[in-house]
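Q: I'm writing up a methods section and want to include an example of the input and output format. Could you take the sequence below and give the corresponding predicted structure tokens, formatted cleanly so I can copy it straight into the document?
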Amino acid sequence: MTVHKIALAYSGGLDTSVAIPWLRETYGAQVVAVIVDIGQGEDLAAVRDKALASGAVAAHVVDVRRTFVTDYLVPMVQAGAVYEGRYMLGTAIARPLIAKTQVEVALAEGADALAHGCTGKGNDQVRFELAYQALAPQLAVIAPWRQWHIRSREQAIEYAERHGVPVTATRARPYSVDRNLWHCSSEAGILEDIWAEPPDDLYQYTDDPRTAPDDPEYVEIEFEEGRPVALDGARLDPLALMERLNAAGRRHGVGRIDMVENRLVGMKTRGVYETPGGTILHVAHRDLEAITVERDCQHYKLQIGPRYAELVYYGQWFSPLRQAFDAFVASTQRTVTGSVRVKLFKGSAMAVGRRSPQSLYDMHLATFGEDAVYDQRDAGGFIALWGLPTRVFAQANPRLIRSLREPVR
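A: Here is the clean output for your methods example:
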């Protein structure tokens, strides 16, 4: 493959740090580093300087934090997307936006190739490359981890040392860490022993629930058509709202998950995730939907959530199916307006109050006390009609029905 300029998705971590000198040596090409600010909380000016010092001819820092919240995180929350019932997709949802930004820079720079630092064992290689195929199929794709002689993080650290590239990973702490506005994930190292408890110093986004405040904290989140717009009565920009939820969740140790998940490439892997503000937002949105979305729509949407999560996890963000799901989800969000009060305490986030001008909850209908709006005699006719197919089947199949009455052996 002959290429002249390569746009590299650059984080400044171990994998992309060693990729710059390797790409230059292997292809003799210029390398443009694309540094995407998705709220990872790092000194990205220093990351830019590091890329240039490592041999990049240019390094672009692009701030997409607000877009990340409004166009990626919020739609994912609205869809109720949680992978395998636990993982809130912090790494997976960031990849299509990073790839999209990388493609935009590559086209502006006249690059003829795209590169990423994802390993050949992981999910991210799929997420990046499916986005490339959707947005810029004419550009060549280079995946160093699938080509070079480096076969472990230890060897990558040695390569960086030989080439004078500073990295934060060490042999003592060889964790693979991914941070952004939504979450912090940790893999590798001692975590590969799935019997070993994560060490206390692993966690970066949440305080230890054991030392969290002894008094609960309450936060009130206001939504308009499924989008969070205010916190504790103050209207906020979506980015500022997310940052404040993260701070509240951190104080109370909310959002820690230690799980073994199924990777797309076929293996099981362990990840430790911290999603403080995202956990609070999911809880609040779900409870507001419970009172504002009609039953059949709500139940069908609950079926879509896991499939939507798979699309995010599998790198299919730009797929027609995801866009079709978004159209359905958007229609369900037209009535999701109101507020939810969430109680934060010792690692938990629980909705304890919800209200909406479009609430379908009617206390007069739901009460166990005396009411004047529900005639309980109507239930008899309803049950007779609802059970009609069951009764007809039983009458036509007496032998099968007798078998149902026999004791289980």
